Amino acid sequence: MAYAEFPIQSLMYITNRPELVFTGGNGSWLTDHNGKRYLDFVQGWAVNCLGHSNQGMIDALVAQSQKIINPSPAFYNEPMLRLARQLPALRDSIIAGARQRSLPA
């Protein structure tokens, strides 16, 4: 699968891309169309760093995809509200840990 086999000019230009096509991934590694492996430090740029093909992630994505996928941020959705419930406790835990580390012994 070489990229030249496809009408790439139909795609939106984002950046100059090398002449390779990623065809799979596992954990933090990607595999190109020639079977060469690459350590993936970029992933979704500023979006995530979750790895590839993790079974727990696959199961969660399948379950969520059967409910709702990427709804507009202009409306509330159930996962967003569950996250809102968890964030204050997470914030407080992080602050408490930082204070504990910064206090003299």
UniProtKB/TrEMBL annotation:
Q: Does the keyword Nucleotide-binding apply?
A: no
List, alphabetically, the InterPro entries matched: Aminotrans_3, Class-III_PLP-dep_AT, PyrdxlP-dep_Trfase, PyrdxlP-dep_Trfase_major, PyrdxlP-dep_Trfase_small
Which keywords annotate this record? Aminotransferase, Pyridoxal phosphate, Transferase
| Keyword Transferase annotated | yes
Domain of life per record: Bacteria
Entries under Gene3D superfamilies matching the protein:
Aspartate Aminotransferase, domain 1, Type I PLP-dependent aspartate aminotransferase-like (Major domain)
Provide the cofactor list for this protein: pyridoxal 5'-phosphate
Which GO molecular function annotation, any one, does this entry have? transaminase activity
For this protein, the record's Pfam families field holds:
Aminotran_3 (PF00202)
Protein name per the record: Acetylornithine/succinyldiaminopimelate/putresci ne aminotransferase
